[in-house]
Design brief:
- By secondary structure, the chain is mostly helical.
- Helices cover 70% and strands 0% of the residues.
- It has 7 helices and no strands.
Length: 188
Protein backbone atom coordinates (compact mmCIF):
# COMPACT_ATOMS: atom_id res chain seq x y z
CA UNK A 1 0.00 0.00 0.00
CA UNK A 2 1.42 3.37 -1.00
CA UNK A 3 1.84 6.19 1.46
CA UNK A 4 -0.75 8.22 -0.47
CA UNK A 5 -3.31 5.41 -0.20
CA UNK A 6 -2.58 4.96 3.51
CA UNK A 7 -2.97 8.69 4.17
CA UNK A 8 -6.26 8.83 2.28
CA UNK A 9 -7.63 5.81 4.18
CA UNK A 10 -6.43 7.11 7.54
CA UNK A 11 -8.13 10.48 6.94
CA UNK A 12 -11.44 8.68 6.43
CA UNK A 13 -10.92 6.42 9.44
CA UNK A 14 -9.88 9.31 11.68
CA UNK A 15 -13.09 11.18 10.82
CA UNK A 16 -15.18 8.19 11.89
CA UNK A 17 -13.37 7.34 15.12
CA UNK A 18 -12.76 10.81 16.55
CA UNK A 19 -16.07 11.01 18.47
CA UNK A 20 -15.94 7.44 19.94
CA UNK A 21 -12.29 8.03 20.89
CA UNK A 22 -13.38 11.23 22.59
CA UNK A 23 -15.73 9.26 24.83
CA UNK A 24 -13.00 6.71 25.61
CA UNK A 25 -10.58 9.50 26.45
CA UNK A 26 -13.11 10.89 28.97
CA UNK A 27 -13.06 7.54 30.80
CA UNK A 28 -9.25 7.53 30.72
CA UNK A 29 -9.29 11.16 31.87
CA UNK A 30 -11.40 10.59 34.98
CA UNK A 31 -9.43 7.48 35.85
CA UNK A 32 -6.12 9.40 35.91
CA UNK A 33 -7.29 12.86 36.99
CA UNK A 34 -6.04 14.10 40.35
CA UNK A 35 -7.54 17.58 40.42
CA UNK A 36 -7.21 20.21 43.10
CA UNK A 37 -9.13 23.45 43.47
CA UNK A 38 -5.97 25.29 42.47
CA UNK A 39 -5.54 23.21 39.29
CA UNK A 40 -9.19 23.86 38.40
CA UNK A 41 -8.62 27.60 38.71
CA UNK A 42 -5.42 27.44 36.67
CA UNK A 43 -7.17 25.47 33.95
CA UNK A 44 -9.59 28.33 33.37
CA UNK A 45 -6.70 30.29 31.79
CA UNK A 46 -6.94 27.90 28.82
CA UNK A 47 -10.52 26.61 29.00
CA UNK A 48 -12.29 29.98 28.99
CA UNK A 49 -10.41 31.39 25.96
CA UNK A 50 -10.94 28.05 24.20
CA UNK A 51 -14.69 28.20 24.79
CA UNK A 52 -14.79 31.85 23.75
CA UNK A 53 -12.87 31.13 20.55
CA UNK A 54 -15.08 28.19 19.62
CA UNK A 55 -18.21 30.24 20.32
CA UNK A 56 -16.93 33.25 18.37
CA UNK A 57 -15.86 31.07 15.42
CA UNK A 58 -19.16 29.20 15.27
CA UNK A 59 -20.99 32.49 14.94
CA UNK A 60 -19.00 33.28 11.80
CA UNK A 61 -18.73 30.05 9.84
CA UNK A 62 -21.26 28.98 7.24
CA UNK A 63 -20.02 25.46 6.67
CA UNK A 64 -19.98 24.24 3.07
CA UNK A 65 -21.79 27.38 1.88
CA UNK A 66 -19.07 30.00 1.60
CA UNK A 67 -15.45 30.40 2.57
CA UNK A 68 -15.24 32.16 5.92
CA UNK A 69 -12.19 34.41 6.16
CA UNK A 70 -13.31 37.05 8.67
CA UNK A 71 -13.49 37.22 12.44
CA UNK A 72 -11.33 34.55 14.07
CA UNK A 73 -10.81 32.98 10.62
CA UNK A 74 -8.59 35.95 9.76
CA UNK A 75 -6.13 34.78 12.46
CA UNK A 76 -6.21 31.02 11.92
CA UNK A 77 -7.88 28.77 9.37
CA UNK A 78 -8.99 26.44 12.16
CA UNK A 79 -10.22 28.47 15.16
CA UNK A 80 -12.64 25.71 16.21
CA UNK A 81 -9.83 23.15 16.44
CA UNK A 82 -7.51 25.64 18.11
CA UNK A 83 -10.24 26.39 20.67
CA UNK A 84 -10.67 22.65 21.26
CA UNK A 85 -6.92 22.30 21.84
CA UNK A 86 -7.00 25.09 24.43
CA UNK A 87 -9.93 23.43 26.18
CA UNK A 88 -8.31 19.98 26.12
CA UNK A 89 -5.00 21.18 27.53
CA UNK A 90 -6.86 23.31 30.06
CA UNK A 91 -8.51 20.15 31.32
CA UNK A 92 -5.12 18.41 31.34
CA UNK A 93 -3.97 21.19 33.71
CA UNK A 94 -7.11 20.65 35.82
CA UNK A 95 -6.34 16.92 36.04
CA UNK A 96 -2.71 17.47 37.04
CA UNK A 97 -1.58 14.58 34.87
CA UNK A 98 1.25 14.55 32.37
CA UNK A 99 -0.15 11.27 30.97
CA UNK A 100 -3.41 12.96 30.13
CA UNK A 101 -1.59 15.80 28.37
CA UNK A 102 0.47 13.28 26.37
CA UNK A 103 -2.63 11.28 25.39
CA UNK A 104 -4.40 14.49 24.32
CA UNK A 105 -1.36 15.45 22.24
CA UNK A 106 -1.24 11.99 20.64
CA UNK A 107 -4.98 12.08 19.89
CA UNK A 108 -4.59 15.46 18.26
CA UNK A 109 -1.66 14.34 16.10
CA UNK A 110 -3.16 10.99 15.11
CA UNK A 111 -6.83 11.94 14.78
CA UNK A 112 -7.36 15.67 14.40
CA UNK A 113 -4.35 16.57 12.27
CA UNK A 114 -5.44 14.22 9.44
CA UNK A 115 -9.00 15.57 9.74
CA UNK A 116 -7.68 19.12 9.37
CA UNK A 117 -5.69 18.12 6.29
CA UNK A 118 -8.70 16.33 4.82
CA UNK A 119 -10.91 19.37 5.40
CA UNK A 120 -8.32 21.55 3.70
CA UNK A 121 -8.38 19.33 0.62
CA UNK A 122 -12.16 19.58 0.54
CA UNK A 123 -12.15 23.37 0.96
CA UNK A 124 -9.50 23.76 -1.73
CA UNK A 125 -11.73 21.87 -4.17
CA UNK A 126 -14.92 23.60 -3.02
CA UNK A 127 -13.72 27.22 -2.92
CA UNK A 128 -11.29 28.58 -5.55
CA UNK A 129 -10.21 31.39 -3.16
CA UNK A 130 -9.08 28.91 -0.50
CA UNK A 131 -5.52 28.58 -1.77
CA UNK A 132 -4.87 32.33 -1.55
CA UNK A 133 -6.50 32.40 1.89
CA UNK A 134 -4.31 29.48 3.02
CA UNK A 135 -1.21 31.38 1.89
CA UNK A 136 -2.19 34.39 4.04
CA UNK A 137 -3.54 32.74 7.21
CA UNK A 138 -1.80 30.06 9.32
CA UNK A 139 -3.32 26.61 9.57
CA UNK A 140 -3.61 26.38 13.35
CA UNK A 141 -1.55 28.66 15.58
CA UNK A 142 -3.09 32.13 15.21
CA UNK A 143 -0.98 34.98 13.95
CA UNK A 144 -1.29 38.31 15.60
CA UNK A 145 -2.54 41.10 13.44
CA UNK A 146 -5.54 43.15 12.56
CA UNK A 147 -8.91 41.43 12.62
CA UNK A 148 -10.41 41.22 9.14
CA UNK A 149 -14.05 42.13 8.95
CA UNK A 150 -16.47 42.65 6.15
CA UNK A 151 -20.16 43.05 5.56
CA UNK A 152 -20.57 39.30 6.12
CA UNK A 153 -17.97 39.20 8.89
CA UNK A 154 -20.19 39.95 11.86
CA UNK A 155 -20.93 37.45 14.60
CA UNK A 156 -24.31 35.75 14.18
CA UNK A 157 -26.19 34.31 17.16
CA UNK A 158 -28.29 32.42 14.64
CA UNK A 159 -25.19 30.58 13.37
CA UNK A 160 -24.01 30.04 16.94
CA UNK A 161 -27.33 28.37 17.82
CA UNK A 162 -27.44 26.46 14.53
CA UNK A 163 -24.01 24.95 15.24
CA UNK A 164 -25.09 24.26 18.85
CA UNK A 165 -21.79 25.56 20.14
CA UNK A 166 -23.39 26.17 23.53
CA UNK A 167 -22.68 22.45 24.04
CA UNK A 168 -19.03 23.39 24.64
CA UNK A 169 -20.07 25.52 27.59
CA UNK A 170 -22.36 22.80 28.93
CA UNK A 171 -19.69 20.15 28.46
CA UNK A 172 -17.03 22.19 30.25
CA UNK A 173 -19.45 22.98 33.08
CA UNK A 174 -20.22 19.26 33.51
CA UNK A 175 -16.52 18.39 33.46
CA UNK A 176 -15.85 20.91 36.21
CA UNK A 177 -18.77 19.57 38.26
CA UNK A 178 -17.40 16.03 38.05
CA UNK A 179 -13.89 17.24 38.92
CA UNK A 180 -15.19 19.15 41.95
CA UNK A 181 -17.14 16.05 43.01
CA UNK A 182 -13.99 14.00 42.63
CA UNK A 183 -12.10 16.40 44.92
CA UNK A 184 -14.88 16.52 47.51
CA UNK A 185 -15.84 12.84 47.62
CA UNK A 186 -12.70 10.97 46.56
CA UNK A 187 -9.92 13.25 47.73
CA UNK A 188 -7.03 14.40 45.64
Amino acid sequence: MSRETFNRRWKKISRRIRVPLGFLSVIFYFWLARPSFRSLLLSLVLVLPGIFLRSYASGHVTKNVKLTTTGPYSYTRNPLYFGSILIAFGFAVAARSLWIALVFLALFLVIYWPVILDEEEYLCGQFPAYKAYANRVPRLIPRLGRLQTGKDGRFSFELYRQHREYNSILGAFCMYLVLVARILFFGR
